[in-house]
Amino acid sequence: MALKIRLARGGSKKRPYYRIVVADARNPRDGRFIEKIGTYNPLLPKDDENRVRIDLEAAKSWLDKGAQPTERVARFLGAADVIKWEHGNNPKKGEPGQKAKERIEEKREKEEARKAAEAEAAAAPAEEEAPAEEAAE
Fold it and tell me: CA-CA distance, 93 to 72, in Å (whole number)?
């Protein structure tokens, strides 16, 4: 049985309140859980001590039994120095998708074609004026 330490949402619409629970990974987010080990209230200010409350002893025991915390809970446990949490590194997150890359390439090609057409248009009148000047002399 794969155990997760995760958030289970409570509260009403637009007023979230979360329980930090240990649950089987196959159970739904707000479904059955094994033990409640804390709470998280995101509506409170970040410096409020009641924003995140975790029973650290229970969390340590569940981690020793093999429970895996989710990213958000790992951040809370890292702030409490229970585990070492590092910010994830996803360098491809901001990279555009295939279709967006194709659109960018098409736009660049159109821009180059427009600049080339402008350059030709600017060069053509200059060539027409040069013979007229020679005739005037």
Answer: 18
Query: Cα–chain-centroid distance for residue 87?
Result: 12
Q: Give the pLDDT confidence of 18-58 residue by residue, as tens digits.
A: 999 999 999 998 889 999 999 999 999 999 999 999 999 99
Q: What confidence score (pLDDT) does residue 51 get?
A: 94
Q: Contacts by 68-75 with C-beta closer than 8 Å and gap 24+?
A: 68/2, 68/3, 68/4, 68/5, 69/4, 69/5, 69/6, 70/4, 70/5, 70/6, 70/7, 72/6, 72/7, 73/5, 73/6, 73/7, 73/20
Q: Report the C-alpha gap between 3 and 83 in whole angstroms.
A: 17
pTM beyond 0.70: the answer is no
